[in-house]
Specification:
Blueprint: E1 2-5, E2 12-15, H1 20-24, H2 31-38, E3 46-47, E4 58-68, E5 74-79, H3 86-93, E6 97-99, E7 108-112, E8 120-124, E9 129-133, H4 136-151, E10 157-165, E11 171-177, H5 185-197, E12 202-206, E13 208-209, E14 212-213, H6 222-225, E15 229-230, H7 235-240, E16 254-255, H8 260-271, E17 276-283, H9 288-293, H10 315-331, E18 336-340, H11 347-351, H12 353-361, H13 367-384, E19 388-392, E20 405-408, H14 413-420, E21 425-427, H15 430-433, H16 455-459, E22 469-474, H17 484-491, H18 494-503, H19 511-527, E23 557-560, E24 592-594, E25 598-609, E26 612-619, E27 630-636, E28 643-649, E29 660-667, E30 673-682, E31 693-700
Parallel strand pairs: 3-10, 5-6, 5-7, 7-9, 11-12, 11-22, 12-17, 17-18, 18-19, 19-20, 20-21, 21-22
Antiparallel strand pairs: 1-2, 4-10, 8-9, 8-10, 13-14, 15-16, 23-25, 24-31, 25-30, 26-29, 26-31, 27-28, 27-30
The protein binds acetamide and zinc ion.
């Protein structure tokens, strides 16, 4: 028996000596690869750079010439002025590329330049492919382009030509929330592999949040023996049960954390794939797990459910953060260190004696200045260690430390403001880059947070052209994403769109073409064990929203007996009779929001036939948007005396988690006439109140 490896999947082969002569005239393949070969098409399939995600910045083909992909894999050589890690990557991750033996002619020459550059050129000739990376990263990306072409199902040849490729932005990120649901190192490595294929180069690791602390910190054992564990498996159950933590040794403890060794290994794994890990430690808010483990860091010396803020008045809170950031900086070589800074409640600071004292001592007049004091202090601490601080756009404050960069999530406004101030910015706006939104009609999708964000909507995001703009990032918050499979489903294929926007020149982007490539690439991803959303099953935009609807009330005046919310006005006074229907997303500016019961009258201008009345409501319970308990339709000729023609009760459970739209339609009769049509809707009773009603159009026929 002898030891050989399959040239395709690198699996160890068990070969008996009696088979050796036979083997010598066949490529070394395992049973699986042999089967795959048997199933290979007899016809030739030519692939080219036009199949790749992200699309290269430029490529041209040479007539009909082709490079035939050798069935036994491509023999390569590497020419580099200094030691390169590419070979190590190829040996472990690219079984179809095999080192050329001494004297053997190479099918692939990889040349590595000395520049610190992600650019590369690839020449595909009939007999040989040459990848010339301007630097190590460029050569790596050239190899990724080639591997994607080779990985296409049934590919037998590559169109000859030339690729010249470089990224549009230096920062192309994907965010992982490992607090709400802990993910294993293996899971993260698997996603790093996918990121490398997509030329994404920054993994934002959201290591801490109220639902669990995930990094071992010397001197603070309670963070990892207590604040990293909870009795409930899902975030929702944990939240509904008062956000408790438990000892790691408790029988049902759910959670986990990463040791320093594991994180250093992860950093190394990512670096070998030209991916930087940006670690995030939340401060001064999103820190309920911290105050649960160390109550002395809370205002008043005890954690309070509903208050995620740490106490800025306490000096030991800063000592804690400095110890944490010291450890983080030791583990992660990232230029940028994320300090969170979003969504601080700030209320408790107003009455906490320690916080008030801090405000007095530092001459701070309000709690916004207090937050800014904390952010600046930590940003300067990070800068003192030779790194740069970055935080969510809430930290933008007139007195924010000038060197601090911004990650813009509440739209792009904060990012643009920061750019105007000369700051570095990463765009990650929630409405186009938050992959926790459902990617298709919510009624067919798993429970999600946010609204609707299709692949096309992600793809269409244009981050901007300012020099200060580092790039963009897709974020995926994990509250409702319990399993790894579900997480992958949310990332892919939308992460492909983030990758293409980050890499490909805007003028070269084309959604129809990208969508075809995305479907093809998902096949490759699925073969490699990723659970991707199936684009062939996509419902797409809500059909009602595709074109304006004509009806008798279109353009009619609307009288609001109860007001709509200024937060969700849609088109304001005309929204409900403008003919525009809503999409799958209640905040798309076509759905109008009312936080209370609705009482709305449409004035048709004169008495006319009213045969049917229809109105749709939206339900998105994770955003407190619920179907009404009932909808009443009443008609009147004078606007004073109304006849109720129908009261329709909701059949759908208004607590059902999935987002839906529901139509409330009534036939008023063939002879019915009216000038005024009144709609009353009773909002859902939510514990604690606050339920919203959202409707898009009152349709009268
Ligand atoms: C955020 O989504 N709160 C950054
Ligand atoms: Zn305080």
């Amino acid at each position: 028996m002898s030891k050989y490896f399959c040239v395709f999947c690198n699996k160890k082969l068990v070969i008996f000596v009696s088979e050796m002569t036979n083997i010598m005239i066949k490529p070394f393949v395992c049973g699986f690869a042999a089967l795959a070969f048997a199933a290979m098409p007899l016809h030739a399939k030519t692939v080219s750079a036009s199949d790749v995600i992200p699309a290269p910045s430029s490529f041209s083909t040479v007539g009909n010439d082709i490079f035939k992909i050798p069935a036994t894999g491509l023999r390569y050589t590497i020419e580099s002025p200094r030691s390169s890690r590419i070979e190590e990557f190829l040996i472990t991750c690219a079984p179809r590329l095999v080192p050329a033996k001494k004297g053997e002619k190479a099918d692939l020459r990889i040349k590595i330049g000395e520049a610190d550059s992600e650019s590369y050129e690839m020449t595909i000739g009939k007999k040989q492919i040459t990848i010339k990376g301007h630097g190590e990263a460029g050569a790596f990306y050239g190899v990724q382009t080639l591997l994607q072409m080779l990985s296409e199902p049934d590919a037998t040849e590559i169109a000859c030509g030339k690729i010249e490729d470089s990224p549009r932005y230096g920062y192309r990120g994907l965010h992982f929330d490992v607090s709400r649901h802990f993910r294993s190192i293996d899971f993260l490595k698997k996603q790093i592999d996918a990121m490398a294929m997509l030329k994404l180069n920054n993994l934002h690791l959201h290591l801490t949040d109220a639902a669990g602390w995930r990094i071992e910190i010397p001197g603070y054992p309670r963070l990892t023996e207590y604040a990293a564990w909870r009795p409930q498996h899902t975030w929702q159950l944990w939240y509904d049960n008062g956000q408790p933590f438990c000892e790691s040794t408790a029988p049902n403890a759910y959670g986990g954390y990463y040791t320093k060794k594991e994180l250093k290994d992860l950093v190394e794994y990512a670096a070998a794939r030209h991916i930087n890990i940006v670690p995030e430690i939340e401060m001064p808010s999103h820190s309920f797990e911290v105050t649960s483990a160390y109550p002395e860091l809370a205002c008043g010396g005890k954690p309070t459910v509903g208050n995620d803020d740490m106490c800025i008045g306490k000096e030991n809170m800063f000592r804690f953060l400095e110890d944490v950031f010291t450890e983080v900086i030791d583990i992660f070589p990232s230029e940028y260190i994320h300090l969170g800074g979003d969504e601080a409640g700030k209320e408790v600071w107003k009455t906490c004696p320690d916080c008030r004292q801090r405000m007095k001592d530092e001459n701070l007049t309000d709690v916004d200045q207090l937050q800014n004091y904390a952010v600046n202090r930590i940003a300067r601490f990070i800068a003192g260690k030779g790194r740069k601080a970055i935080g969510w756009d809430e930290i933008l404050h007139p007195d924010l430390d000038p060197a601090t960069a911004i990650m813009s999530w509440r739209g792009t406004k904060g990012g643009k403001e920061a750019i105007a101030q000369g700051r570095r910015v990463v765009m990650a706006p929630g409405d186009t880059c938050y992959l926790n939104n459902a990617q298709d009609a919510q009624y067919k999708e798993p429970l999600s947070q946010g609204g609707y964000l299709s692949l096309e909507m992600v793809y269409d995001f244009e981050p901007g052209t300012d020099e200060q703009l580092l790039g963009l990032q897709g974020c995926m918050w994990g509250e409702y994403v319990v399993t790894d499979e579900h997480a992958e489903y949310m990332y892919y294929p939308r992460a492909y769109a983030i990758a293409e926007t980050g890499w490909t020149p805007a003028s070269k982007k084309d959604y129809a073409d990208f969508r075809c490539r995305a479907q093809q690439f998902s096949q490759v991803m699925q073969q490699r064990g990723y659970n991707t959303f199936d684009l062939s099953q996509e419902v797409g935009l809500r059909p009602e929203s595709l074109k304006p609807v004509c009806h008798r009330a279109r353009g009619a005046k609307v009288i609001y007996n109860t007001p709509y919310s200024p937060l969700y006005p849609a088109g304001g006074e005309n929204a409900l009779t403008d003919g525009q229907r809503g999409s799958w997303h209640f905040s798309d500016h076509n759905w109008q929001g009312i936080q209370g019961d609705a009482d709305i009258t449409v004035d048709l201008g004169k008495v006319m036939p009213v045969n049917a009345v229809m109105v749709d409501f939206m339900q998105s319970p994770k955003s407190w948007v619920h179907l009404p308990q009932w909808v009443e339709v009443a008609l009147s000729n004078d606007g004073e005396e109304f006849n109720t023609v129908d009261t329709m009760r909701s059949e759908t459970n208004a607590d059902a988690p999935l987002a839906v739209t529901r139509r409330y339609a009534t036939v008023t009769g063939v002879d019915a006439t009216a000038r005024y049509v009144r709609i009353r809707a009773k909002r859902h009773e939510r514990p604690g109140g606050g339920a919203w009603l959202f409707l898009d159009e009152i349709i009268v026929n």
